[in-house]
Amino acid sequence: MGNRVGIIGVGQTHHAAKRLDASGVELISEAVTRALDDAQLTISDIDAIVIGNMDHFENINYVDMWAIDGLGACMKPVFKVTTGGTTGSTVGACGYYHAASGLFDVVLAVGWEKNSESDTQAAIATCANPTLERDPFAGAIGPLATEYSMYMKAFGATEEDSAIVAARDRNNALNNPYAHSRQAVTVEDVLNSPMLSYPIKFLDMCPRSDGSCAVIFASEEKAKKLCPKPAWVHTSVVRHDYTHFGDLEWKFMPTLERASAAAYKLAGISDPLNEFDVAELYLPCSTCGVKWMDSLWFCEHGGAPGLIRKGTFNMDGQLPINPSGGVISTNPIGATALIRIGEAAWQIMGKAGGRQIEGVKKALCTGFGGCSWTDLMILGADLP
Amino acid sequence: MEKVAIIGVGQTKYERNKPETFAELVFEATSKALEDAGISKDDVDNVVSVSSDFWDGRTISSMAISDASNAYGKDITTVEGDGTFGALYGMMRILSGSFGVTLVCAHHKGTESNIKGITNCAFDPLVERKLGIDAISSAALQARRYMNRYGVSEEQLALVSVKNHGNAMRNPLALLPMDITVADVMGSRKVADPLKLLDCSPVTDGACTLVLAAERPAKKLCTNKKRVWLRGVGHCSDAYRLGDRDLSDTRALKDAARRAYAMAGINDPRADVDLAEVYDAFSYMELMWLEGLGFCGDGEAGEQMERGIFNFDGELPVNPSGGRLSAHPVQVAGLQAMAECVLQLRGEAGDRQLNTPETALVHGINGMCGQSHCVWILGK
Amino acid sequence: MGLYEDKRKRTHTPEGYELLAHESGHLEYDFNWHLGYYWSRFLAELRDNKRFMATKCPQCGTVYMLPRQVCGKCYVEMNDWVEVGPEGELEGFTIVRFPYVDPNNGGMKEVPFTSIWIALDGADTRLMHYCNEHDEKDLDVGMRMRAVWSEERTGSIHDVQYFEVIK
Amino acid sequence: MPDWKQEVDVMIDAGKISVPYSWTVGTTLSRFYCELRDNGKIWANRCPECGNVFVPPKVKCINCYQDLNDWLELPGTGTVETFTVVRYQEPTLHPRPAPFVYGIIKMDGADTGLLHFIDEIEPEKVKVGMRVEAVLEDERDGNILDIKYFRPVK
Questions:
Q1: Which superfamily does CATH assign the domain made up of A125-206+235-380 to?
Q2: Is the CB of D27 less than 8 angstroms away from the CB of A59?
Q3: Which residues of A touch D (CB under 8 A)?
């Protein structure tokens, strides 16, 4: 068996639509420096480094090589993983496996993106099959709009339900100094914002951001030595089942259902709504904050609107979701899913500042990307 | 520490302009690897794919091969780099205790893209990229620096090309088997001085899949004859800008090799290693890397090449497959080299079988001018 | 936390130097993607016979549109071809109104266009394509649609111009 | 191979990825390029810990991961550490027609080399160890091509 692994430090940049003051490498160094500060380590304590992003967003080939100065990786083992929108969680999982393998003790995992450097929609279009799917592919919003339309029809969910989610996450972001978009909004503001693609409106959707996040993973022995309260990794699960966009099964979010079912089993979780104390979820759009609650087994299919209307997922609710403000407040794509892991770790470590939930013992984080792919990680205050 | 074995290998033939899609190549290699291991799709619990968005011309290059790689319903991830790094991640995932049997599959179609434009994008857009530098011209700078520092001759470089293309004559999967002389290499078209056409590896298409297994499933699923153990591994990266490095220096490779040797318990690589597959993207690289790996002193590889030490019938055969000079599917290259060593260690290398090797070394690189290295020790 | 300097609004360095950007200008990277046996046959059938050919899994029977070699679920090669469509049901749509860079040529993509997911009759997965309606009011999930063919067909996905609603 | 595959003429899709980029130069290199563009000077920065001097300047020391706030002006001369004569044409990449010479120039006053063109000399006459100096463009835009090339010191 491998090592148990804890997160001992997290750093992130102040995210924004455009960080003119920081090149990609400078953004990375900002996140890495802050993660080292957070863990009270220096770069010489780091045994190995993992990085990822979306290549065509900044047109950097071999980003692991290019980022060396920002990573502090010269004359160290450095590794690149990348899987599109789930890159951040893929980087996190890779950091975890590095430390769990016993080959490395202290591992720095870094995600970043400078979405301001290109036309994000054009870059996303290149993820469709160039011959058969690129031209009619309308980007991420199309499948999300479609699945929520069908969900509303099937279960009586409303546009107001997703607006409640949007207002919740956006107002949570007011407590997060790093968030890109920090603006108090009401449910009415969301409902009245311009329609992007029915039923998704402007304030339902994620922005594109410049930003970076760094998370430090350590083997059990090192984590105990270096950190008074590590966030222990309980499990990491990935499901990337689809090959073409047309393969999606609309009615549910099957990769999320399968990944979460597998992860709960591994982590011994039978009642996720009660057992988790906080969740940082990759919800690219507020409608996902409704429908995907079913797929995470928080309720029966169709049960999510009822929970949302009761305030179940608010800061003071039964299971607070996205105290950070989530993806609709901050979205530097290659870092986005790693920010979920970092924020969840801070909640467990008690370092989440103004967005801290009291007494977090177990936290759930997810990544989303590709053609509805899911990555998922469970963290805990106690050893697994 | 838990032991991990390679229990199956599958490769396509390495060619130019292969008609198949990325997925069709991956399915061929992966089906062959499963068949070689004698296991079913359900014995596999996770997949590591290796590909590049730049070379494939597609963001999320792994999306194209999700079904073809046997990933449905399984944990999958993607390494962008040489195949040796993909195998390393496969091993880490097994050592973590989370997985038992890992598929590592890589695909590459060099003939579908323009190597110069794509490798130009490996350079910083804020500095060197505007000058038009690419993999070939930067390698030429490194070759000159290395030759100048150690007094290595162009003829010594040419010997590497003669040897490896000759070795490829015995490998039915290689793209460029050739019976050539030093004079042929010296007389080939000048590309970027001191490199000539026959100092450079060809653009190539192909795919390769390895099956890795933890000790228990390895012993349960297949016979002793099929198992080759991963005994040691190490990786390390040097600085990014060409001007930050002394390009003739192999310190990152030395560090990667030190890690791999320590893990495998190798004290004297020259004596303990029976064959090596070394990343010869260009002829000069084989000489530099042989030195960095500690098979000889710095600056000595050229002279030892002249003495035939690294020939097929020499003291330490290097690149018996024909190396990257005879087939260079960039993302696949490391797995291709690992597959060659597995076949050699099993005694299944056909016409190019060496005499009962016990220990093999595989070397992969990442980035320009061998910025980063991954070194493997494989054993019976 | 929160003690770090927030540099988001800067337009100049602390010493007063202008913060610059480097523009790439027009860039293009060329590819020659080989379409393999399955997509080549699929496109040849569109071109020559105006029909949609899908592959069927010999084990689970799933009919894949787009066709492909491998049924992911069963991990077997498919060699059975079946005709699907040319009519089908609208499963989802998006009307794109905001222009963005077309990665085919670096110019701006023409808008509006309507991207649809259509379940062709007989297929178990969906084809992504265009529809000629550009108003949400005229489209609804579940509508019946049919293919409208191009006069000049070249072996491309555009050999089908778009799908239209069957009134 | 199944029969149907033998009857297929495999097609090739000649396509592109064509997307423009606007790269943020950032705090460190903006200072470097502003000095080059506005004042015609080449600046470097130095590590307070190991003393290494980097050109182009860096955000962090590659050895010590220290901030590099100590800036100094370089004389613009240096020594050719290595070079190549590029013989192939690649008009979409190369700012000039082949043959031309790339060199890595170890800059006087710095510990790193700078990649650039070497010109005003026949390619066959370039030597390792040769002393060279930077020649700047008259019209400068704030990028690395504001240095036109390096030429032998007379």
A1: Thiolase/Chalcone synthase (3.40.47.10)
A2: no
A3: 18-26, 29, 42-43, 56, 58-59, 68-70, 72, 74, 114, 116-119, 122-123, 126, 130-131, 210
Domains assigned to chain B: 4-114+205-225 (3.40.47.10)
Q: Is residue C16 part of a domain?
A: no
Nearest to B145, CA basis, from B280, B298, B290: B298
| Residue B128 touches partner D, C-beta closer than 8 Å | yes
ipTM of the complex, rounded to two decimals: 0.97
- Which has the closest alpha carbon to B128: B237, B238, B244? B244
Interface with C, mutate which of D6, D13, D28 (most C CBs under 10 A): D13
**Structure confidence by residue, pLDDT tens digits, C47-94:** 999 999 999 999 999 999 999 999 999 999 999 999 999 999 999 888
The pTM for the full model equals: 0.98
**D136 prior amide bond cis, ω within 30:** no
In a domain, C72, yes or no: yes
Which one is predicted more confidently, A297 or C99? A297
CA–CA dist A378, C8 (Å, integer)? 32
- pLDDT, tens digit, 9 for 90 and up, residues D68-96: 999 999 999 999 999 999 999 999 999 99
Shortest distance between the Cα of C107 and any Cα of chain A, in A, equals 10
Per-residue pLDDT tens over the stretch C98-117:
889 999 999 999 999 999 99
d(CA C21, CA B132): 19
Q: For A5-121+209-233, which CATH superfamily applies?
A: Thiolase/Chalcone synthase (3.40.47.10)
- If you average pLDDT over every residue of chain B, what do you get? 97
Q: Do B21 and C38 touch (CB under 8 A)?
A: yes
Mutation choice for B interface testing from A68, A113, A266 by most B CBs within 10 A: A68
What b/e readout covers D54-79, taking b as 16+ CB neighbours within 10 angstroms?
Answer: bbbbbbbbbbbbbbbeebeebebbbb
Interface test with D, best of C7, C15, C20, C46 (most D CBs within 10 A): C20
